[in-house]
């Protein structure tokens, strides 16, 4: 399959969280067209087995590939943790996950005090960020402190981004991170950038936050440039959204994650 520079970037996630990755892509690569697939009928992926998540991920990728994408972004931490090897082997286009870019950005940012990782229980339990950090650090080594923060996801989806409740939750999860010597914290869930302000307040100014979405967008830009697949500066980008369940809630909640209105999303059937 031959890709062209004007072909879209494909992005998939189990729901709305991956829209923070899409937002970073739109900001970093404003001339690129995109296709976003939210597998809202089967959300969440974090509670499912690796085999099932891989099967869903391959189906998502097949759907996007049929629509002529030039690169696939796996904007789901769970899928990035368990399905990336299968996707990379099966697809004729480059595949980028969100874990490696975030981990490597954290290693560039840390001042030697250690790296913290927060994410969903499934992502933290997988150990994917921990393994990626340790592998990238090599012989220098790195101290990693990881914690699941499950309540951040419903807070983000319900729009509770400030005020007493999210601050209390953030302090409960994160107050000991700074005390433990962590100087860099990876936001290892695509929902968490919406709560960046309360997270930063909870860990204190001495801890630098790394947004995996922004790091992923930078990696995608560099990869497209390397493969001479960057869209031309004069290209007018288009952005299309697909979901596997009724689109109304995706359109409503997704606008908060994307930072701009989503005027419509097409419901599609990805049944096996």
TrEMBL record:
The active site is at 76 (proton donor/acceptor), 189 (proton donor/acceptor). One of its GO terms (molecular function) is glutamate racemase activity. InterPro entries: Asp/Glu/hydantoin_racemase, Asp/Glu_race, Asp/Glu_racemase_AS_1, Asp/Glu_racemase_AS_2, Glu_race. PROSITE patterns: ASP_GLU_RACEMASE_1, ASP_GLU_RACEMASE_2. Substrate binds at residues 13-14, 45-46, 77-78, 190-191. SUPFAM superfamilies: Aspartate/glutamate racemase (SSF53681). Keywords: Cell shape, Cell wall biogenesis/degradation, Isomerase, Peptidoglycan synthesis. Pfam families: Asp_Glu_race (PF01177). Pathway: Cell wall biogenesis; peptidoglycan biosynthesis. It catalyses: L-glutamate = D-glutamate. Its EC number is 5.1.1.3. It is an enzyme of class 5 (isomerase). Provides the (R)-glutamate required for cell wall biosynthesis. Belongs to the aspartate/glutamate racemases family. This is Glutamate racemase. It comes from Archangium lansingense. The lineage of its organism: Bacteria, Pseudomonadati, Myxococcota, Myxococcia, Myxococcales.
């Amino acid at each position: 399959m031959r890709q062209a520079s004007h072909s879209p970037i494909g992005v998939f996630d189990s729901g709305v969280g991956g829209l923070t990755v899409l937002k970073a892509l739109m900001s970093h690569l404003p001339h690129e067209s995109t296709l976003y697939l939210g597998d809202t009928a089967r959300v969440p992926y974090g509670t499912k087995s690796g085999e099932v998540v891989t099967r869903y991920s391959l189906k998502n990728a097949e759907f996007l590939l049929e629509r002529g994408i030039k690169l696939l972004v796996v904007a789901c931490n769970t899928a990035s943790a368990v399905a990336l090897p299968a996707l990379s082997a099966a697809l004729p286009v480059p595949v980028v996950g969100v874990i490696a870019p975030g981990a490597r950005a954290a290693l560039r940012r840390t001042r030697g005090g250690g790296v913290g990782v927060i994410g969903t229980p499934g992502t933290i339990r997988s150990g994917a960020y921990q393994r990626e950090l340790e592998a990238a650090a090599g012989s220098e080594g790195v101290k990693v402190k990881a914690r699941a923060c499950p309540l951040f996801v419903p807070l983000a989806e319900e729009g509770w981004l400030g005020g007493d409740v999210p601050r209390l939750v953030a302090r409960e999860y994160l107050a000991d991170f700074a005390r433990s010597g962590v100087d860099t914290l990876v936001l290892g869930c695509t929902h968490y950038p919406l709560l960046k302000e309360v997270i930063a307040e909870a860990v204190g100014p001495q801890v630098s936050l790394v947004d995996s979405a922004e790091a992923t967008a930078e990696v995608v830009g560099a990869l497209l440039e390397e493969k001479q697949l960057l869209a031309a500066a004069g290209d007018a980008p288009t952005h299309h959204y697909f979901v596997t369940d009724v689109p109304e809630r995706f359109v409503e909640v997704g606008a908060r994650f994307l930072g701009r209105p989503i005027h419509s999303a097409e419901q599609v059937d990805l049944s096996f």
